[in-house]
Amino acid sequence: MGNGSTKLLGHKQGWIVLITRSQSVQLGLTLPELLIGIAILGILASVGLPSFQSWMVDTKIRTAAESIQNGLQRARAEAVSRNTGIEFILGADSSWVVRIANPVTIIESRSGSEGSKNVTGATEPAGATTISYNSFGQIAPNADASPTFTRVTLAASGSSKLLSVTVNAGGSVKMCNPALATGSHITAC
User: Fold this and answer.
1) 107: pLDDT confidence band, cut at 50, 70 and 90?
2) Cα–Cα distance measured from residue 24 to residue 15, given in angstroms and rounded to the nearest whole number
3) Which residues pair with 99 in a beta bridge?
4) Domains of the chain: which residue ranges?
């Protein structure tokens, strides 16, 4: 039995039978199968696209809030480590600058286009843009006598999500969700 099968596979006609049979195996997709697959993919994309776009805008808001929170924490830490007054100045579209108050020396800055383009912030009190920290890391009066902001609420068009960054009188910073009732959740303001 072993010899017969060896002869068949070693024989030229046997190879032709094997080659012919392997060529009849279908590889790939037919046109209707491909069109159905593309249609299903299109339906899934149209259903998921609005959720994806909303997620992207919400991510920009979170990025802006985290950046401002980090900038405020950096300003406070620099004030303590350098034993001097440090200013955090909030700009348009969630941009900011951390600088030494006197003489003016920029330590770090962030452009609003760095991951959070078109995110806007409203400060409390309205129009305030600066927080000054003293060498103990506490809030100090601003050098230009302008009001010190205590909260920045960030929003973006195309999203109902809001995030706030708050600063208490001692200088500590917290990111919170103003949409949640106070005390209802750890992230509530």
Assistant:
1) very high
2) 15
3) 87, 106
4) 32-176
* Contacts (Cβ under 8 Å, ≥6 apart) of 151: 123, 124, 164, 165, 166, 167, 189
Report d(CA 163, CA 152) in Å as an integer: 8
User: What pTM value is reported for the model?
Assistant: 0.72
The residue ranges of DSSP E strands in 112-177, in sequence order, are 119-124, 130-133, 139-140, 151-156, 163-167, 173-176
The fold for domain 32-176 equals minor pseudopilin epsh fold (3.55.40)
148, 142 Cβ separation under 8 angstroms: yes
The tens digit of pLDDT for each residue in 6-20 reads: 555 555 555 555 555
Of 58, 56, 76, 64, the C-alpha closest to 153 is: 64
Q: Which helix (H) or strand (E) holds 36?
A: helix 31-82
Tens of pLDDT, residue by residue over 137-172, are 999 999 888 999 999 999 887 777 889 999 988 888
Distances (CA, A) of 139 to 20, 142, 183: 85, 9, 25
